Amino acid sequence: MTPNAAKKRYVLTCIVFICHCTILTAQICSDIEATPMTKALYANLFKLKDKFTILGHQDALAYGVGWKYENGRSDIKSVVNDNAGLYGWDIGYLELDSSKNLDGVPFNKMKNYIKEAHAMGGLVTLSWHASNPFTGKSAWDTTPGTLRSILPGNSAHAKYILWLDKVALFLNDLKAKNGEHIPILFRPFHELTGSWFWWCKNGSTPEEFIELWRFTVNYLQKQKNIHHLIYVYNTADFKTENDFLAYYPGDDVVDIVSFDKYQYDQKNGREDFISIVEKQLKIANTVAVQKNKILAIAETGFEAIPDSSWWTNTLYPLLEKHPISFVLLWRNAGYMRSMQKMHYYAPYENQVSAKNFKQFYLLPKMLFQKKLSSLKIYQ
Ligand code: BMA
């Protein structure tokens, strides 16, 4: 090889190497046509991930224990005079043309709450307890063959498309004051490694599930021109990396890897919760690092929080050790007649863990609304 050719080859190798590194470390979301705000948000999540965990709460602005639809109120605010930084909502029943979601939240109000949260500089995440498109029953109806029935070419595919069209309409309506779409952390087919929803893993082969996920993303992006979603892959139970990834649809259609895990009031409840979550975080974090994705706990909590120091003694030690971008507490429904028990996951004023939650609020890693707003995650 002539010296010139060697030089050329060296320069070329360097360029290839730099490109490779850029691709590996680039913090760009999977939708290459994502809106500028969506791209900015995703890049900011990466910047914040080692330092902070954003605290989230489902339905936070709509209702709490003992109240409903009071402007400016939230249970978390009643304890720490600040809101959660992440607002979770569920669009289940949108597919049925219902004016309210499956938990009674009017979709019109939900849209306004989403706009309000975004205007405050908060984050928004959506899940979808979609009814069973094959039987018309609930999301919890696990009739075999349901998932397959909605794949292209199969009997309920047209119905699924109609449902996606309704979801797209809703998503398109979520606009900020400047007219730009509000970025949404979208978490479809959640808890997919469980066994209780029609899309859970026992209802399909990995290939079928992956086809459904990829079809859904592709349809929303290409047919509906929706580019303000950050896609959240979400599991429930898993013991190994293989379990976690068995139904993983691909790096080009996922931005955040996450799981849901709750503590239960039972013997060794705390110890079991800590040891399982610790193991799951290690696995999920390994995946996040390998794939250059964000890591999150997409749902957690201890129903009715009977442990008065749960926040600083159980939850925070887990958050402290890992780069978890956000953790979402499930909804504060209050007393549920159907279950004959209290159903809530965030404290309210004078709840037994409220004092401890105030300490948790002050811990360095926690991000609630006020601090998060100052970080301007959409710029
Ligand atoms: C469950 C419970 C139910 C609710 C469902 C969907 O965990 O909170 O009451 O209907 O989530 O939000």
The name of the CATH superfamily reads Glycosidases
CA-CA gap between termini: 50 Å
Largest sheet: 8 strands, parallel, barrel
Please, what is the average pLDDT? 95
Task: Please give a structural write-up.
The chain is an alpha/beta fold and 379 residues long. The protein has one domain (36-374): Alpha-Beta Barrel (TIM Barrel). It contains twelve helices and 13 strands. The strands form three sheets. It has an eight-stranded parallel β-barrel, surrounded by four helices. It has a two-stranded antiparallel sheet with strand order 2-3. A hairpin with a 2-residue loop joins strand 2 (63-64) and strand 3 (67-68). Helix 10 (310-321) packs parallel to helix 11. Residues 19-24 have low confidence and may be disordered. The site of beta-D-mannopyranose has 8 residues, from loops.
Descriptors for this entry?
379 residues; 39% helix; alpha/beta; binds beta-D-mannopyranose; TIM Barrel; eight-stranded parallel beta barrel; 12 helices; two-stranded antiparallel sheet
Write the layout of secondary structure elements.
Layout: H1 3-25, H2 36-48, E1 53-58, E2 63-64, E3 67-68, H3 75-80, E4 86-90, H4 107-119, E5 123-127, H5 146-149, H6 157-172, E6 184-187, H7 206-223, E7 229-235, H8 241-245, E8 256-263, H9 269-291, E9 294-302, H10 310-321, E10 324-329, E11 334-336, E12 341-343, H11 354-362, E13 366-367, H12 369-374
Parallel strand pairs: 1-4, 1-10, 1-13, 4-5, 5-6, 6-7, 7-8, 8-9, 9-10
Antiparallel strand pairs: 2-3, 11-12
The chain binds beta-D-mannopyranose.
